[in-house]
Amino acid sequence: MTTSKVATVLVVDDEARNVKLLETLLHAEGYVTRSARNGREALVVAASEMLDLILLDVMMPDMDGFETVAHLKADPRTQPVPVIMVTALDDSASKLRALEAGAEEFLSKPINRADLTVRVRNLLRLKEYGDFLANHNRILEEQVKERTAQVEEAYRDTVFTLVRAAEHKDEETGHHVRRISHYCRVLAEAMNLPADVSAAIFHASPMHDIGKIGIPDNVLLKPGGFTPEEWVVMRSHCTLGASILARGASPYTRMGAEIALSHHERWDGSGYPNGLKGEAIPLAARIMQICDVYDALRSRRPYKQPIDHARVVEIITLGDGRTEPGHFDPAVLAGFIANTDRFAAIYDQLTDV
Q1: Residue 141 belongs to what H/E stretch?
Q2: How many helices (H) and strands (E) would you count in the chain?
Q3: Which residues does 310 contact at the CB level (< 8 Å), separation at least 6?
Q4: I need a labelling partner for 55 at 20 to 30 A (CA). Which of 3, 202, 211, 297 fits?
Q5: Residue 214 DSSP symbol
Q6: Could you tell me where the beta strands, DSSP code E, fall in the chain?
Q7: What pLDDT score does 220 carry?
Q8: Which residues of the chain have pLDDT under 70?
Q9: Pair 31, 128 in one domain
Q10: Residue 45: which residues within 8 A CB-CB, separation 6 or more?
């Protein structure tokens, strides 16, 4: 580990002649110096400049060296900078007090040049090594972040591939899933969920209908209503989707499997495939459910005409016999009601073409 950087040392003393002496000795060793006349001025300089070492007098008016070093070590910006206390005091109690405040070394007045040189050089070496470790750790963290981003991008590519497969099966589903991601993120943010959860549901929600890949076209694309037997087949897309995603290792596919299986469950227990009720339904699926209902009602399907925004909001919040407010998690429903304008904007911006 080598460096060509010239070290910068801050000299703090209320006596100008002491500052001049220390600066002269430091300049002779090739160091750059800054100076401050008191503790408060030293704190300002230390916070605004890149320092490598501080020589700090103990006996100063207003803010003495003990208080100054305590402030320096309490500030994350200046904490790594080593401090040598320069003092005429020779009692052990004063030295212990300085150590407790955070000083790394001591120099006794009158200053001995050889003593100064050795202590400054040793502490600068320690500072250089500490800076090297901090920079090395920063580089490692950046590399980890970069690798994590690459892995997440690979996960998203997997999701995109699966969703594209669903689009080839049902073009309406293709338009639908683009909007679903944005609806779900709106509700996750409205419920103050952590940012990573909001991001996960944004990327996982497009997979909710992936099981439709396994539904025969004569059922999936049938105009008009389904027979009881066809409903059984159609509803199986939930378990099919969960089965497709169950072995996924990414957080997106794991959440996607939860959503695929349970996004038709209802808060009151009247949903399918397992008749789950209340909080037994995964939260991501409860968010997905109301988004799915909103978009399905608004969209044209082989078996129905689209419904305008105002009427869909009325159906979800007041009920129409088939869809009832009791089907939805009350907290999710409240988030929807507070953001109906955003839902409308998303639908209009990403409408079917």
Answers
A1: helix 113-169
A2: 15, 5
A3: none
A4: 3
A5: G
A6: 8-12, 32-36, 53-57, 83-87, 105-108
A7: 81
A8: 1-4, 90-91, 148-149, 151-174, 302-303, 352-353
A9: yes
A10: 10, 34, 36, 51
User: Model's pTM, two decimal places?
Assistant: 0.58
In a domain, 156, yes or no: no
For the chain, state the CA radius of gyration.
34
Tokens, residue 242: 């969960």
Q: Is residue 301 situated within a structural domain?
A: yes
Retrieve residue 256's tokens. Answer: 């996607």
Same domain, 177 and 125: no
How many domains does one find in the chain?
A: 2
Which domain CATH number covers 293? Answer: 1.10.3210.10
**Whole-number Cα distances in Å, 298 to 54, 86, 227, 315:** 68, 77, 23, 11
H or E element at residue 176: helix 171-190
- Domain that residue 179 falls in: 170-349
What pLDDT sits at residue 352?
56
| Residue 113 and residue 18 share a domain | yes
Exposure class string for 136-173: b at 16+ Cβ within 10 A, else e: eeeeeeeeeeeeeeeeeeebeebbeebbeebbebbeeb
Q: What is the dihedral of CA 21, 26, 27, 32, to 10 degrees?
A: -120
Residue type for position 180: I
- What's the first-to-final CA gap in the chain, in angstroms? 61
Dihedral-angle region of residue 192 (phi above 0 means left; psi in -120 to 50 means alpha; beta otherwise):
left
DSSP string, 75-101: STTTTTS-EEEEES---HHHHHHHHHH
pLDDT of res. 128: 82
Q: Are residues 108 and 175 in the same domain?
A: no
Residues 107, 213 within the same domain: no
Interstrand relation of 32-36 and 53-57 (parallel, antiparallel or unpaired)? unpaired
Q: Is 271 helix (H, G, I), strand (E, B) or coil?
A: coil
Task: Tell me, yes or no, whether 113 lies in a domain.
Answer: yes
What pLDDT does 189 receive?
96
Same structural domain for residues 332 and 203?
yes
pLDDT at 353: 43
Residue with tokens 């996750």: 188
